[in-house]
Amino acid sequence: MAQAALPLTALSEAQRTQALERLKIIRPALEKHVSQAQVARTHQIPPSTTQLWIKRYREKGLAGLTTTTRSDKGKSRKLPDQAIVLVEGLALQTPPRSAAAIRRQVREIAQTQGWKPPSYERVRQIIKSIDPALLILAHQGAAAYREAFDLLYRREATHANAMWQADHTPLDVWLLNEAGNPAKPYLTDRVKVPSDDFTDKDAVATILRITRGNIRLIERLMLQVEHILVANQTQVVTKDVVETAQQNLIIGPG
């Protein structure tokens, strides 16, 4: 039901001027001479503003066309930091809760604390801003976190021959594959890693250069590598170690 229109005497001079100017703008739409959209285009104002002015005029008369002052003017409408922390804490609980459920609980607490209740959209924004890694860690555990975010995995051998280095290279020949189509086969070189820290790429390249992929030579070379590591009380395979092993085998230069 529309509210009774306030008399012009209840408005200040500035408010009456503002109301009359807005009434002049929307009058063609009120009298059905033109559409609301045409009024908005003519005066270069948003269509939603035109609709709002017409609605307020019909409900409150000229008083509805004035700019009212918010009752909470001068007071901060920002969500308190405590409320943001509360939303984040609830979002990290297990099992995961929906944004709607979190908002309902926060609104209840906000009423008791005198906070401005957050909107659903504000709660959703806070949850969305939480680090995805933190969400996975909280909801799925450390294993899922490592699987998703640990970019480097260190693998250590627990005993001799526990790790091997494999390299693949295409050969310059053409053969028919299982489907009967011509394709280049791959040569796979398996290099036994006798230590728990085989990270020297130059060492691997040197092994392949010396042996040219010959499996027997690789096995003989790596046996000498193991002897050198034991003799020098080290576990790191380097290019120098491989070249020393080559000299012991009397393998021709690569």
TrEMBL record:
SUPFAM superfamilies: Homeodomain-like (SSF46689). One of its GO terms (molecular function) is nucleic acid binding. Transmembrane segments: none annotated. Residues 21-67 form the Insertion element IS150 protein InsJ-like helix-turn-helix domain. This is Insertion element IS150 protein InsJ-like helix-turn-helix domain-containing protein. It comes from Dictyobacter kobayashii. The lineage of its organism: Bacteria, Bacillati, Chloroflexota, Ktedonobacteria, Ktedonobacterales.
